[in-house]
């Protein structure tokens, strides 16, 4: 993409008590996918991972048009083939005719997690009344959590910084990797029985 620095798709520290985790980022945008403008939303999510995640991680990054079959195919690929424990989408969650990301998410998920959409709308309503137009949702496919974020970088950071508080615990309950965060950015909440004080011996 012209005008953008190369993206660094991995981060975290081997010194963390957490496990290695793979994340998916999917920008759903007709114009960004055809190069009409640079994708700013996917990099905003990536920047959050760099700032917030202390344990080692890697991102699989896709920019695709607002085509429901392709969105579904991409989500399945990232969950089933790439093994991403978390897949975050951005874009395509409004009421416009081509906004079909929530439908694609629901189609590939086995169980829905509507509380995430409710929380994100509640957060966004502090800033703009049109947040009620968002149809963001979240769901589970196998051991993967799929989460729809807003399309604008500013809105992404307004929501993900709060929503991520519960995501490491959710991934733990899905028997996924233990994700350690930088608490000054996101203080992940877990029941005391799920808190890890040191890396398991087998992983050291």
TrEMBL record:
<keyword id="KW-0547">Nucleotide-binding</keyword>
<keyword id="KW-0501">Molybdenum cofactor biosynthesis</keyword>
<feature type="domain" description="MoaB/Mog">
    <location>
        <begin position="24"/>
        <end position="170"/>
    </location>
</feature>
<dbReference type="InterPro" id="IPR008284">
    <property type="entry name" value="MoCF_biosynth_CS"/>
</dbReference>
<dbReference type="Pfam" id="PF00994">
    <property type="entry name" value="MoCF_biosynth"/>
</dbReference>
<dbReference type="GO" id="GO:0005524">
    <property type="term" value="F:ATP binding"/>
</dbReference>
<keyword id="KW-0067">ATP-binding</keyword>
<comment type="pathway">
    <text>Cofactor biosynthesis; molybdopterin biosynthesis.</text>
</comment>
<dbReference type="InterPro" id="IPR001453">
    <property type="entry name" value="MoaB/Mog_dom"/>
</dbReference>
<dbReference type="InterPro" id="IPR051920">
    <property type="entry name" value="MPT_Adenylyltrnsfr/MoaC-Rel"/>
</dbReference>
<protein>
    <recommendedName>
        <fullName>molybdopterin molybdotransferase</fullName>
        <ecNumber>2.10.1.1</ecNumber>
    </recommendedName>
</protein>
<dbReference type="GO" id="GO:0061599">
    <property type="term" value="F:molybdopterin molybdotransferase activity"/>
</dbReference>
<dbReference type="GO" id="GO:0006777">
    <property type="term" value="P:Mo-molybdopterin cofactor biosynthetic process"/>
</dbReference>
<dbReference type="InterPro" id="IPR036425">
    <property type="entry name" value="MoaB/Mog-like_dom_sf"/>
</dbReference>
<keyword id="KW-0808">Transferase</keyword>
